Amino acid sequence: MKKRLVTLAAACAALALGAAVLAGCAGGGDQKQGDANQQGGDAAMTLTVGFDQSYPPYGFVGDDGEFTGFDLDLAKEVCERNGWELKLDPIDWDAKDALLNSGSINCIWNGFTMEGREDDYTFSEPYMLNEQVVVVKADSGIASHQDLAGKTVMTQVDSAALDVLQNEDEGGQAALAATFKELQTIGDYNNAFMQLESGMVDAVACDLSIAEYQIAAKPDVYKKLEPLSTEHYAVGFKLGDDELAKTVSDTLKAMNEDGTVKQLCDKYAEYGLTYDNWVL
């Protein structure tokens, strides 16, 4: 009987020890899960950049099939300096507002003109000087805005150039556009310049950067007329996203101070981009 009691006691002790071990394992698992949740909460922010992939030299598809461009390089460096993840999202330009407001993207960074849009977005500080210009074929005989009377002019849908040509206020060029035979719009500037070169349209109204890029690629084919307007590029965020806009502005300033911006401008100099137009 004594032997049986000793055996029973030993079995109970073993069961108690096993329960303690299991409890310890369970507690450790809870702690690990809590640590994992905490790590997930500290995960790097993702900056999702909406851009037009047919907008060289600011955003386009390179010869290697990868997205590249001056603005995309700026965004990459800003993210690296702030410990953010970068996601590049080539968007339908017409859908940019819906994508931004829904949170699918959290900024528009692609040669984005701020003038006339101040009430619709929270902007970074302006970083690049820009102009709206008209490009014609070099042998067209068109030498001034007045020569555009009776001509067909094309620009990108929802672009700054279109806004200038439709604006009747001071600084707008609606009166000039009224002299055109037709003001047409198209989805992207690459196709617009194809139509200009083929003779389907007489002129393309676009950003200075686009004009310089096209002229640099075909200097004997195109020329630009005097500017329609002068403006600035900035990064566009959802209204009220002031903290993120300030962080981006401050980081761009630091990048300029240490020479990074100048290096990137030189990288895209062959596309007509110049550091002389940097304003931040």
Q: What does this molecule look like?
A:
This protein has 280 residues and is an alpha/beta fold. The protein is 41% helix and 21% strand. The protein is built from nine helices and 14 strands. Strands 8, 9, 10, 11, 12 and 13 form a six-stranded mixed beta sheet that branches. It has a three-stranded parallel beta sheet with strand order 5-1-6, sandwiched between helices. A hairpin with a 3-residue loop joins strand 2 and strand 3. The model is unreliable at 1-41 (pLDDT under 50).
Query: How many distinct beta strands?
Result: 14
Average residue pLDDT: 87
Shape: globular
Poorly predicted sequence stretches spanning 5 or more consecutive residues:
1-41
Task: Report Rg.
Answer: 29 Å
Oligomer: single chain
Helix percent band: 40-55%
What portion of the residues fall into strands of 2 or more residues? Answer: 15-25%
- Compute the separation of the termini in Å: 93 Å
SSE layout:
Elements: H1 2-41, E1 46-51, E2 54-55, E3 59-61, E4 67-68, H2 70-82, E5 85-90, H3 96-102, E6 107-108, E7 122-123, E8 128-137, E9 152-156, H4 160-166, H5 174-177, E10 182-186, H6 189-198, E11 203-207, H7 208-217, E12 222-224, E13 229-233, E14 236-237, H8 242-257, H9 260-267
Parallel strand pairs: 1-5, 1-6, 9-10, 9-11
Antiparallel strand pairs: 2-3, 3-4, 7-14, 8-11, 8-12, 8-13
